[in-house]
Design a protein that fits this description.
- This protein is mainly α.
- It has one domain (3-221): Up-down Bundle (Growth Hormone, Chain: A), CATH 1.20.1250.
- The protein has nine helices and two strands.
- It has a two-stranded antiparallel sheet with strand order 1-2.
């Protein structure tokens, strides 16, 4: 089991880098629309309904449906197939950023981010956390909360080493994810200054790194399984 999850935490951090990257791209290049979550979209949807803007309502409803459809697909695939959905998530992420980079700059910013809405929701469902902790790779609020809690509790339990060790690990997971996400944000900003709308293509760098680690992890796990099988048979 340990072999099968050898690079679980590094891969999680790398996907958080991508999450920060694509989230920053959406804000920087697509008129401050955050493509990784639905809170702002739902607020805008309610305002559009009350403001009687049917075109904007349809655009926002479509964005919501795209986001929800990714969750449905992820849930169905997790139940019905035996694939490693992490590979599929990375493939979909790569396909989305390839497409979005070709969308014209004057395109409706919400529509331009439909692929991002889909793949970030799918990534959220597939890369759910590491080390037994549920931690999002596409936004930060809960990661910030859990990091603060873990660090605070670490200092509260001064005489309980086992508890302190658990809190330190928790702080590492959530704090590392938070840091990784914002490394992705910073990376995107620097690239965006140079390449503008096409900067999204550089998101392929963390995706490639994550895919490579997953392949190495799977190869090592299979080799270890074969080795154990041969030992048990001899």
């Amino acid at each position: 089991m340990e072999r099968a999850n050898e690079f679980e935490l590094p891969v999680h951090f790398i996907m958080a880098v991508f999450g920060g990257f694509v989230g920053a791209y959406a804000i920087l290049a697509r008129m401050e629309v955050f493509g990784s979550a639905q809170t702002a979209n739902l607020i805008e949807l309610v305002c559009s309904v009350l403001g009687r803007n049917p075109e904007e309502v349809l655009t926002r409803v479509a964005a919501l449906l795209v986001y929800m459809s990714a969750m449905v697909v992820a849930a169905v695939l997790a139940k019905k197939v035996q694939w490693n959905l992490k590979y599929l998530a990375i493939f979909l992420d790569a396909s989305a950023i390839l497409a979005v980079g070709y969308f014209p700059e004057n395109m409706d910013p919400v529509m331009a981010l439909y692929p991002v809405f889909f793949v970030t929701a799918f990534q959220w469902c597939v890369f759910q956390g590491a080390k037994g902790y549920t931690s999002s790779t596409i936004f930060s609020t809960n990661n910030l909360k859990q990091t603060v809690f873990a660090i605070t509790e670490y200092f509260l339990y001064r005489k309980e080493e086992k508890v302190r060790k658990e809190k330190a690990e928790k702080a590492l997971v959530f704090g590392g994810t938070l840091l990784s996400f914002h490394i992705g944000v910073g990376f995107c900003y620097l690239i965006w200054l140079q390449y503008g709308i096409h900067s999204v293509w550089f998101g392929s760098i963390p995706l490639l790194a994550g895919a490579v680690l997953l392949v190495i992890q799977d190869v090592r796990a299979k080799a270890y399984t074969r080795e154990q099988d041969s030992v048990s048979c001899s």
